[in-house]
Amino acid sequence: MVRPPWQSHIYRNRHGRGTRTPTFGVRLPRYRTSSGMFDDMVASQIRRLAQAWPKLVEPVQFAVEDVPPSEPVPWESRRVVISHCFPAELGIPARIVLYRMPIQTHHPNYAEMQWAIRDALVARLADLYGRRPEEIDPDWTGIDF
């Protein structure tokens, strides 16, 4: 009886030249996609803000989307939208949405992207609570979002 290759202990790669080996070493971290790294940066900034302002951050839902909606909201005059905040209404909690592609396009450097994410989150939290961004984060750079 012929056994399929995946049931045998050692089997050849698809070209028949050698045994299959893992793509990544045991001690190496797995390859991260750009969207995965962006999500990690957003999560770390949310954790940082939650440690400083737990009462402000806890009731807010955060989301990351690839691109903003094609039809801008009537009150938006900006050409590039990198984030939105939606106030709480009728049982729906307040939400802050960051758009990954515009941020990555305008800030290709890893460090610049972290600053842009931080500034966007702080600016949107300030919009939700009617505060100045400097009250939430004294290091806020004031880039217009």
UniProtKB/TrEMBL annotation:
SUPFAM superfamilies: Metalloproteases ('zincins'), catalytic domain. Coiled coil: none annotated. CDD domains: MMP_TTHA0227_like_1. It holds the Pfam family Zincin_1. This is Peptidase. It comes from Bifidobacterium bohemicum DSM 22767. The lineage of its organism: Bacteria, Bacillati, Actinomycetota, Actinomycetes, Bifidobacteriales.
